[in-house]
Records
---
Amino acid sequence: MNIVTVFVVSQGACVWVPDPEAVQNASYFIYIGANHLYAILLFLNKEMEYPVLPPVGLPPLRNPDILEGENDLTALTFLHEPAVLHNLRVRFLDYSSIYTYCQIVLVVLNPYEQLPIYGEEVIDAYSGQDMADMEPHIFSVAEEAYRTMIREEKNQSIIISGESGSSKTVSAKFTMHYFAVMGGAAQQTSAIGNAKTTRNNNSSRFGKYIEIGFGRRGDIIGANMRTYLLEKSRVVFQVLWEGICL
């Protein structure tokens, strides 16, 4: 079988190339090398060869500068890992934003510090607003679920997922606080955690399934929380001590 490879990339196009430290670095495409085995890229004013044979192919293209810092990843022209990481980095460093939409999904970066973006005035700003009309925030997701529940009288679910230290417990805390304010039972909620890891000083060892009951007027009438073990994989062996008798 003969394979014909067609490359449709303009000279000077900005692309991403892997980097062991920065993960991805910006480079510029110049031309396809002999026999279509490699591409010649310009990186830090030096030409470099990049293999383009399947399954590698050409390096992923960068998005136009005008799309940098988009608050919804689905608005990007090119949606791949380097584009997502770069956009999240720009939003965090240049816009001081830890939240980014990916359609109805909210991507959260843990800043590892307290931020003044969860006060009562912020709750008031997001109350009654559509997700599309507001900057990404955990309160916007909570508001969307709350309003849909009231309007359609159907149960809603918010799934908070991520690796250890990604702020799952804190995100659940602020979500419940928003519901408490909307449901007329506002009070401080606290995080639940019971272990310290190399990446998280307050790591939750258990998954939590939280149910909050609301009346027809949207007021909280009850709540229930169940826990289930998720971290069995961390228990890999039992330490055995050898005693010495004197």
---
Amino acid sequence: MLLELTRPELVRTGNLIDGRWSGAAEDGRYLVINPANGERFAEVPDSTAVDAHAATDAAARALPAWRATLPRERAAILRRWHALILANLEDLARIMSTEQGKPLAEARGEVHYGASYVEWFAEEGPRVYGDIIPQQQRGKRMSAVKEPIGIVAAVTPWNFPLAMIARKIAPALAVGCTVVAKPAEDTPLTALALAQLALEAGVPCGVLNMISASRDQGVAAVGDWLADARVRKITFTGSTAVGKHLARASADTLKKLSLELGGNAPFIVFEDADLDAAIEGLMASKFRNGGQTCVCPNRVYVQAGVYDAFARKLGERVAALKVGPATDDSAQIGPMINARAVEKIARHVDDALSHGARVLTGGRKLDALGPNYYAPTVLLDAKEGMVVCCEETFGPVVPLFSFEREEDVIRAANDTPYGLAAYFYTRDVRRIHRVSAQLEAGVIGANEGAVASAAAPFGGVKESGYGREGSRYGLDDYLSVKYVCEGGLD
């Protein structure tokens, strides 16, 4: 069975506040549902602003001592956390697959990926340097010192329930911040298990606090963090609409924000591309997590001279994908997260068909498998104006657009308010540099579909947000710069 765990105690069904597991203050609870079959998985606290405030109180008490620890001491704790994550990889993957739906092989990969951020920031935390500013006046010495910003509130999405929260918590802890966190309402259990392992690694009481909440109650809980001046930073991954709300609502306390928001990624195949390599890249980038990622290609542009050949090869690959629950070891695509997701995918496909698109493969729900399955789909003859061109589908649907000239596809690729990721394939080295410079996105894949790495800065431009996660740049959003001027030295 999927939930035959080596350590069943990793399935935590309480809030972590000040090092203790407890229910919500008002005793509310809600169900976590397995999207593969619609069955109940667990009950977790339905936290309110009262719980969020208690978490902030704990983080505030813990902050002075934690920020005073040596960077190497914090790094040692993070390294132990990293080791525990890998030691419990199989249990974490099974919890994740059950609440999120992704195949077990993919869930195992996410555990490795999330753990890589903990390891990376354990190494980078001790390397936060300031600057001695060249002397401007005799008798004065000026320096710039980087310090932890304070309490960080992390709000994460359901599509990568371990990697996204690890990518936010690890840098915050590495530089001496304390954290209050709320994982997505659909997938809290993976994050709560991760928090349990952090406690076992030696993260002190109150340094990491985590609460679960349903959609309605979660708004009130996060709202308390937005209003609380003690919370100095919000880091959020999710929709652009919610990101804009957080920016507006946090303005009264002038918090620092990192916002990784929606995307509408183009994937461009030029006539001189290696078509087999382009298809491999598209399969890797588009069908990861069933297309439920913010960086997966949403619009695939293929130059007219290779359009038919590319479509034929792609259709064969997509039609061969195995769809099924995580209990099926051969499954490559799992269920969508919930019925709303399936309804959105179906609406996008129906709109495209009503405007002249044709189904090459897929294009239907797979009700025989369960309530939340949709067939991997390739649409031919996609055009501007279709919903699939304007909105993020967040599902296993590939609309193929045809283009003639490079300048035309650059214009089309950039014709969106979003700018998170963009991909293109070409054998022309000059074109690689030319197109990379012109595409308006924070992440570019040139002849590569798998771009994620703990060593790389991740984030968007335009309405895809601001701030960067991962890499050495990922520490900057958790630090403030203090200028120190020493006088009377002559």
---
Amino acid sequence: MNKEVTEFIKDKTLINGQWLEAISGKKYPVFNPATGEQIVLVPDMGQADTRLAIEKAEQAQKLWLKQTAKQRSIILKRWAQLVEAHLETLATILTLEQGKSLAEAKGEVTSSINYIDWFANEAMRVNGDVLPPSAAGNFEFVKKRAVGVVAAITPWNFPNSMIARKVAPALAAGCSVVIKPAEDTPLSALALAALAEQAGIPAGVLNVITASSGHEVGQELCANPIVRKLSFTGSTEVGKILSRQCADTVKKLSLELGGNAPFMVFDDADLDAAVQGAIAIKFYNSGQTCICANRLLVQDGIYEAFIVKLQEALGKLRLGNGLQPDSTHGPLINEKAIQKVDSIVNQAIEQGARLVQGGSYLPEIGKQFFNFTILADVTPEMDVFKTEIFGPVAAVYRFKSEEEAIRLANSTNYGLAAYAYTEDKGRIFRLSDQMEYGMLGINTARFVSETVPFGGVKESGIGREGSVHGIDEFLEMHYVCIKN
């Protein structure tokens, strides 16, 4: 581990510009999921620490809001430049704590740079409206103002970019932030906070709470009336709990929750392109993303050919420690994840699915590695159809008609991302009209960027992150009427 990586692996957390231990003095370990080795001990914080961070954030936000939009923009751009200057270091830290390959980690940090830079520019574009007068002699207008203190609860699967995607628009809008990173992956958040401090973001505007359990911290973030906005990325189950906890203080919410993404391949598709798309999005981050293809729906005429080509393509991937140059994919995040994926696969086989390859974990590589798996002849009646797998398991379903494919794709409470491969132009427009998803990729599987309004419908969430719409999540409209 080189000197700079060691320097940016923090064993304290940032509150009000100070690097602190937990008030209780407790710590908890952060492990490398590829090796099982302990990386560092970080503060195990609770309600008192969280309340302190919120109070300091409130004080700092009043001063931060007095900065002009241009001043905030300049500081955010400086943060983006520092992240870019330390890209290799941040990617290494990300791989150490999360496990993904170094190439994927570099891509994620690059995404963070893009989000910070994008919202640095959006800070300058928060505009209001002058309204037509509702009565003679009136001057009426609407202005947009920062919502206030923001709580950001981020997931372990993208511990770097999820910070940037939430924090950058909040800061651009004039909010202060208290971040609660996932317990498994706090180090990327702390490293980004250190660079934010170097960039000139004032003390108290950006605070980080690390904790081995989100329960106590989450309760305080939701119940504390000072916090006016909660932005959460995680499971639908937890999102619903947080939503209920925020109800008493009527907070503004952004919830990016679970998915059950269909990946539809029609007979007329470019089969090689469809297979490469399936590999790219099904096995992205070893299947541990909310937009991963969760159900591969393949039309009758090319069903078996698709499976053969998918198996051939999987043979080119390599599981291993993400820091090794030949590793394309890393481990699952923890032992609980391994047990869940193993249970899903075994249950599907018991219910009649055909195991084409894989289907087991690989202790010879490490305790948290699960083999690339293909399940064929899966049916909608099986439990796996309704389950977000979150692992490197491709469950392949068969369909006959376009109507059946759309019906199967929409047969879920989720509505985050969907994918379809077809050369039929009419079908493309029918899909865009009928698919019940916040995002739809046609003949492409990787479309997420800072310009895209990321988010879902139904039980996949509320609100959008990224794009020109992303900063609106951290603003409120204020109407003013002046009588002449």
